[in-house]
């Protein structure tokens, strides 16, 4: 009798356990399915936030994973016609996506890696009017691609001393101040992120302009993707890039040399950019034939903004006020100070450029009327309302 009861109880318990397991299995399947579909919604099967950037909030947009076929189609099989440049990451192609969007595609050889995907997700998580947006990536056939928004009117360096320098009407002081301000806003935005992002490769060639001449800073944080195995470019290019890098510090034991990147090294690079904007020349050039210093060393040794008037780009004519120009020069000097502590923060540099630009506008505009006025250091000219 009691044995029968025990068997009945045992059987019931077994049935309950079985039902429990089945419920668990169904529940697990449903949960698993929903998490998979959540990932594929973003067009990517990789988890969207992992690793050291795990703490940041990802809300609006996420990197898109492109198919290699789509990139072949967009660039007409990476035809030479669409090759628009070559950078540290590799060749850069212009591409037209199915939806009619123009993009810039960077291509290099590389094995697929999760680290690459993580960095791309981080770098594409923020957007700003003065930053070139990273749209997505692709890793297939041992190739790695980065897909950026396309900025049509080239780099500021090409307008200052490169192929596009015939567009002279855009080189007036007020335009240069606008370009400086936009670039400063882009860089200051990177420094204000949490976690903050150091650009690490800021240079005049990385400030692009769109069709309305709005500057957009390119390649923010790209150095993080390049990693330690950085391939040195052609030596003349390397030398031209080197000038934007803050001085190298040698550690006390003199065993190893290391380059430290920080917000303040970005400020140094930004100061060199301002110097190129002011002079219309590459900072590697000498200010005069009887000097063997380059522009940066020359300014560092003089420390006197007054003397800098000799390097002001002649193409600006006298269409600027001496007051605003002098303040602009005074701002460059501390930015390229060899001591990082003495360099100002990017947010301060940005506010100063904004103030100088407003001052220049005030001084060249009288009560909003189109009145010819004379200002110190510049000849008679028509003041134009912007
Ligand atoms: C690209 O290559 C594929 C196969 O190699 C070929 O079928 C296609 O016609 C090519 N497209 C263009 C635009 O050259
Ligand atoms: C931008 O480039 C296009 C094509 O080269 C040119 O027609 C246009 O005038 C340029 N815009 C500016 C503001 O320079
Ligand atoms: C100076 O400004 C005037 C009026 O805006 C313009 O006509 C002239 O071309 C400018 N000169 C230079 C050198 O930019
Ligand atoms: C420019 O003019 C406005 C109005 O007169 C004034 O409020 C402002 O402080 C001026 N800005 C600078 C930088 O001089």
Walkthrough of the structure:
This protein has 386 residues and is α+β, with helices and mostly antiparallel strands. The chain has helices at residues 2-41, 68-74, 114-123, 156-161, 173-192, 222-226, 235-242, 263-279, 295-302, 322-335, 346-364, and strands at 64-65, 83-86, 91-96, 102-109, 134-140, 143-149, 207-209, 215-217, 249-250, 257-258, 372-375, 378-382. Mean pLDDT is 79; it is low at 28-59, 228-233, 250-257 and 369-386. One 2-acetamido-2-deoxy-beta-D-glucopyranose binds at residues 355, 358-359, 362.
What's the topology here?
Blueprint: H1 2-41, E1 64-65, H2 68-74, E2 83-86, E3 91-96, E4 102-109, H3 114-123, E5 134-140, E6 143-149, H4 156-161, H5 173-192, E7 207-209, E8 215-217, H6 222-226, H7 235-242, E9 249-250, E10 257-258, H8 263-279, H9 295-302, H10 322-335, H11 346-364, E11 372-375, E12 378-382
Parallel strand pairs: 1-5
Antiparallel strand pairs: 2-3, 3-4, 4-6, 5-6, 7-8, 9-10, 11-12
Helix pairs in contact: 5-8, 5-11, 8-10, 10-11
The protein binds 2-acetamido-2-deoxy-beta-D-glucopyranose (4 copies).
